[in-house]
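hey can u check if this looks right to u? its 307 residues, i copy pasted from the old doc so theres a chance i mangled smth
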Amino acid sequence: MKKYLVTGGAGFVGSNIAFALETERKAKVTVLDNFSLGNYKNLLGFKGDIIADDILSRDWFGKAGPVDAIFHEAAITDTTVHDQRRMMAVNVDGFRNVLEFALKAGVKRVVYASSAAVYGNSKCPMREDQVPTPENVYGFSKAIMDNTAREFAEAHKDMTLVGLRYFNVYGPREYYKGNPASMMFHLYNQMKAGKRPRIFKFGEQVRDFVYVKDIVRGNLNALDAEKSCVCNLGSGRPGNFNEVVEALNKALHTDLAPDYFDNPYSFYQNKTHADLRQAKTFLNYRPEWSLSDGIADYVKILEKTKI
């Protein structure tokens, strides 16, 4: 039986990965999480072990034990956090700590979450060989993580490091993220309460929205990547905010018109679009969920979920 460590495993993407490893790969999974952003409710039904500790600590090194691979999801993901020192410490120094553990424990594969935020407002479709132009310190921290991973992989040829640049992820188990949760989740709650969905004027902002089930598939496929790489994970089919409202109206059987308001953010990404050629080549990644189908599936799950 394979053994895997998932850092940030009580969070949104991490918990989805942990369950997929248990159910699909029949693996033994250990979750490392300090529960500052994650929630135990995301792990109800989880069969593995949990280490309640911080990635900036080294106290967990002896508890994690030998594992076949690490899925590193622990991070500050709120793009509105402006504390640059804290963002860099948690995201970059925490990642270095995870790599130090991997080296000491003899782990040969690390799959880690990067982000499309590294691209900022650069041209689309966004390719991995573009020079990073992040609009905020979160995107900058992820770009430095990619640098760190590349240098580490070059220095340790026997290890495989796979960075996954997530685009705009939504789906089950994001309920406890608060403000950083996807617009699908926030708009669903507004519309469920009979309120008009509030989106930026005039709903023409474009995002490569990707359902978390496709993100999980990309992570599991990374276990079979033959070499170190950084790959985009998106849908490859971007949609605008008006289309999100349209899909939610269809799934909820409502007809609520958008309530447009001014965008208050000066560092906003107005468009994201993932070029998936590298992900297809190195990870055999082929997203299955369209925007409308993903939202319909998500709404069905939300309707059954007690938060």
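Residues 228 and 268 are 31 Å apart (CA to CA).
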